[in-house]
Amino acid sequence: MLNLSSLNPQQRLAAETLKGPVLILAGAGTGKTRVITFRIAHMIERGIQPWHILGVTFTNKAAREMQERVSKLIPKARKPIDADPSVKLRDLRPTICTFHSLCVRILRQHIEKLGYKKNFVIYDESEQLGAVKKILAQISAKGEKTDPAAILSLLSRFKNGGANSAAFADESLRAMAEHIRKRYESALHACNAVDFDDLILLTLRLFEEHPDALEACRAKYRYVMVDEYQDTNASQFKLIHLLTSEHRNLCVVGDDDQSIYGWRGADISNLLDMEKHYPEVKVVKLEQNYRSTNTILRAANTIIKNNVRRRGKQLWSDKGDGSKIALHTFETDEEEARNVVEQIEYAKLAQRIPWGAQAILFRTNQQSRPLETELRKAGVRYHLIGGQSFFDRREIRDFLAYLKTFINPHDDISLLRIANTPARGLSDVTMERLLAASHERKGSVYSAMKNPNVTTTFMTKSRESIEAFVEFIERTRAELVRTDSTPSPHSQSA
User: Fold this and answer.
1) Tens digits of residue pLDDT in 93-136
2) In CATH, what number does 121-191 get?
3) How many Å apart are CA 338 and CA 327, to the nearest integer?
4) Where in the chain is the domain with CATH 3.40.50.300?
5) I need a labelling partner for 80 at 20 to 30 A (CA). Which of 204, 244, 324, 408 fits?
6) Alpha helices in 94-170 (DSSP H)
7) How far is it, in rounded angstroms, from Cα 321 to Cα 262?
8) With 0-12 CB in 10 A as exposed, 13-18 as middle and 19+ as buried, what is 66?
9) What predicted TM-score, i.e. pTM, was given to this entire model?
10) Following DSSP, what letter does each residue of 245-266 receive, concatenated?
């Protein structure tokens, strides 16, 4: 049985309020994840079927942590003897995922209604840049230079904020975004591909054009919870509102004092104006902080209360006052860095605080340079968080491009990346000619490679390289299908 007495009074109130709209104002360090997981477990204990519960957050890490915590609080899901064989065990558990993961699940079921195939691929940033570069090469005047990354950022703002966003006060900027967006969407659609911004927008389009898909999702997700609600943008708000406007069982968790993503489309009014859309909403404030001392909290409260638009809350702690806050000022970055390293060395030698228990926080990446210099001088080993991602390494991107090409050879961006990696006689000139042929025929590069009317225009050596590459792709795809369809010894019936 779930032990709700381990929660403080406000946490328990939030966990026990299951019906109707609920706004949980959770200050930093007030145990919001604990409340969310207990609330989900309490729903199941009260007889709500797990598969009718949806929890949405912003990062895969947060979703995994929440899923793990919930799993420890609820009985293990068991598949009924008479269950439909197509039903998977995960379908019997609460759905806890990111906005994008939720939309992928929905689109995998219904995207054919929008003219895509179910095996659509999702372009990452480098693949999006590749698509934008192709478009710019077609529409830019000779000698004109345009930053593809800036255009991609413009497209993302257009999708998330819409044409009427403040980002498009300049009419020419809005017109450019609209002009490129249409070409960009057509290019991706031709490759049966979408980008991350498309996932939510296509789901909204699906709901608007096919009400049956919306009704199916409403019937499945009857209790919806959204974490970090202060960071939702217009599209995410609309998605949640469509899912919950009928049953009204929406619980949002957020803190307007932690809203820092306005620059990427987050709209704090989604949280501040909750009563406009859900007049009957019940507001629960979590103000007891379990992370900091009262000295730190008083300083934070004093600063944050100057924000113009916010819901009032006063964080407090039962940890006592603790140490005083020390403020040091320095003439130069180098002097500041030396002092920081001296403080770290003192903590290690005099107070026996190990290196691994100490951290340096800085606001921008460029501020790490003097700190790293002084740490190296002092012989202090350190780990810099925020360096190059594993998935940004060239060999990993190449590997993923191969996998994407095997799944969908009409994905031009992935195919062009691996066509001559390693070298196989497909020069840049050859690939440019194939790309031009694909544009003329309004198809993919792979279709052009398989078209005899195209390949016969190449010299023998180039034509043989093209044919060998196509044969390699086809052979590998056939092998993957064969491997996937061959039952393992463990899955064969006795």
Assistant:
1) 899 999 999 999 999 999 999 999 999 999 999 999 999 988 88
2) 1.10.10
3) 15
4) 4-112+199-286
5) 244
6) 99-110, 125-139, 148-161
7) 33
8) buried
9) 0.73
10) TTT--EEEEE-GGG---GGGT-
